[in-house]
């Protein structure tokens, strides 16, 4: 345990409920966080972890109609005594969806806007911006338009915007979710050094605890009903283990890509590439942040207009990195049933297996990030497309949800469905994938048997990947 001092966050029997909900999201939560501590909030998807963060930074209830009870103190003062925006000079937040906190077009303008909001003198801004760009390794992105960045790069920009305020407390909502494994490990090491240098207090929501090694001092665990079920010293966690499964690849082609390329505003997003996926094949698309993975997925699905080449497939379904883009109805169950291709019994089965039963009547925009992702996955599985492209489906998912997703993919591939999955979760990739497609700097490296990739450390390092831990990698049998 690292030396700590006085409490900076104090909760005593804190409960929170949205007015439209029958039951509370958080139930009588009590704990202290001392200055300089590193604390992780864990628990199943949808248990209220992000809501708890929003209480700590005064986003809730200041920006919603939520009902709060109990005692919550920030730096020794009742939370409701802080003026709107005042606490955010001392408590900075990196949200789960970094797009939600950007207001300006470029990285430099976003950082400057953050400083303007806390009234930093203009002659001090330049040194602060330069310093935080160097600290976060974003020097080369200073004038880049944020919306052209990858999800992982946006996460780093959001972290820079938080750190530029020189806060006392840093709140992180799944900071590794969109980072490639190499960048994720770098971020953990960087946060470790930063915290040692500054004494910053860090509170993070996280599912992938195996990536953090011994970073945290304490683990505060919430149960599914929003109650505190554990407050204990943190111990390193093993990676999730998935069942072994035989190959189900068939001989017929499900997707054929020939010399596909995309140019946007005159810029080549990825060079012409070609590959074939067969019926029943599960392929993982992997590579560094910003390498063109999501752009390729959008091109395959017709969202991006191609500048050359062809895609041959009988039908492609798409689960985007931001699942909200798919939602068309006002309830979770209606979203799964929207296509009309699945029977009511199938919809109910999907709803239960994806652990969406308790929120089946909730609006899909009102549920947690991990639940939104499962809603989008369920809707696409219900649509019965022969090929399904998923962009980061494991983000925001606890161990139980990941295992169920693995099982659903396993069942569908046995029926001949084909999956192309973008993921930075090496354990999930090693368990689920028959093949791995690697891309770097917009150039397609090639398609490999999965087992060849996990044992080729030079190939992994070149694509910012790390060997999977504790996974049951298998050798698929296909030509």
Automatic annotation (TrEMBL):
Key word Translocase present: yes
Residue ranges of every copy of the ABC transporter domain listed in the record: 9-249, 255-466
Protein name: Energy-coupling factor transport system ATP-binding protein
Localisation per UniProt entry: Cell membrane
Organism: Edaphobacillus lindanitolerans
GO MF term list: ATP binding; ATP hydrolysis activity; ATPase-coupled transmembrane transporter activity
InterPro entries from the UniProt entry: AAA+_ATPase, ABC_transporter-like_ATP-bd, ABC_transporter-like_CS, ABC_transpr_CbiO/EcfA_su, ECF_ABC_transporter_ATP-bd, P-loop_NTPase
One GO cellular component, as annotated: ATP-binding cassette (ABC) transporter complex
SUPFAM superfamilies registered for this protein in UniProt: P-loop containing nucleoside triphosphate hydrolases (SSF52540)
Family label: Belongs to the ABC transporter superfamily.
């Amino acid at each position: 345990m690292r030396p700590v001092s006085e409490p900076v966050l104090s909760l005593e029997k804190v409960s929170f409920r949205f007015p439209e909900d029958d039951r509370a999201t958080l139930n009588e939560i009590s704990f202290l966080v001392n200055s300089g501590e590193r604390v992780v909030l864990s628990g199943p998807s949808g248990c209220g972890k992000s809501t708890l963060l929003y209480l700590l930074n005064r986003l809730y209830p200041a920006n919603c109609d939520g009902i709060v009870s109990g005692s919550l103190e920030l730096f020794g003062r009742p939370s409701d005594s802080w003026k709107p925006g005042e606490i955010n000079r001392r408590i900075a937040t990196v949200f789960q969806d970094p797009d939600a906190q950007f207001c300006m077009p470029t990285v430099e303008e976003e950082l400057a806007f953050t400083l303007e909001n806390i009234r930093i003198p203009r002659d001090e801004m330049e040194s602060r911006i330069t310093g935080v760009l160097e600290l976060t390794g974003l020097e080369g992105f200073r004038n880049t338009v944020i919306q052209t960045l990858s999800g992982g790069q946006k996460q780093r920009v959001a972290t820079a915007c938080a750190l530029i305020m020189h806060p006392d407390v840093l709140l992180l909502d799944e900071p590794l979710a969109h980072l490639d494994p190499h960048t994720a490990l770098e971020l953990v090491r960087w946060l470790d050094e930063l915290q040692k240098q500054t004494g910053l207090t860090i509170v993070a929501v996280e599912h992938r605890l195996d990536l953090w090694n011994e970073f945290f001092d304490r683990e505060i665990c919430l149960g599914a009903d929003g109650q505190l079920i554990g407050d204990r010293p943190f111990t390193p966690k093993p990676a999730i283990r998935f069942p072994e499964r035989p190959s189900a690849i068939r001989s017929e082609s499900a997707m054929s890509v020939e010399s596909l390329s995309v140019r946007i505003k005159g810029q080549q997003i990825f060079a012409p590439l070609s590959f074939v996926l067969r019926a029943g094949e599960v392929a993982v698309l992997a590579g560094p942040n910003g390498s063109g993975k999501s752009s390729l997925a959008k091109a395959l699905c017709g969202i991006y207009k191609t500048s050359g080449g062809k895609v041959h497939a009988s039908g492609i379904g798409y689960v985007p990195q931001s699942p909200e883009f798919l939602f068309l109805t006002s309830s979770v169950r209606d979203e799964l049933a929207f296509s009309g291709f699945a029977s009511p019994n199938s919809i109910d089965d999907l709803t239960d297996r994806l652990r969406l039963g308790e929120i089946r009547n909730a609006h899909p925009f009102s549920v947690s990030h991990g639940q939104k992702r499962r809603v989008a996955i369920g809707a696409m599985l219900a649509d019965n497309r022969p090929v399904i492209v998923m962009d980061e489906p494991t983000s925001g998912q606890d161990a139980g949800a990941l295992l169920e997703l693995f099982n659903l993919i396993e069942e569908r591939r046995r029926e001949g469905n084909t999956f192309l999955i973008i993921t930075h979760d090496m354990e999930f990739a090693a368990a689920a994938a028959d093949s791995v497609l690697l891309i770097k700097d917009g150039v397609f490296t090639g398609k490999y048997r999965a087992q060849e990739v996990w044992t080729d450390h030079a190939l992994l390092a070149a694509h910012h990947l790390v060997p999977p831990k504790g996974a049951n990698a298998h050798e698929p049998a296909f030509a």
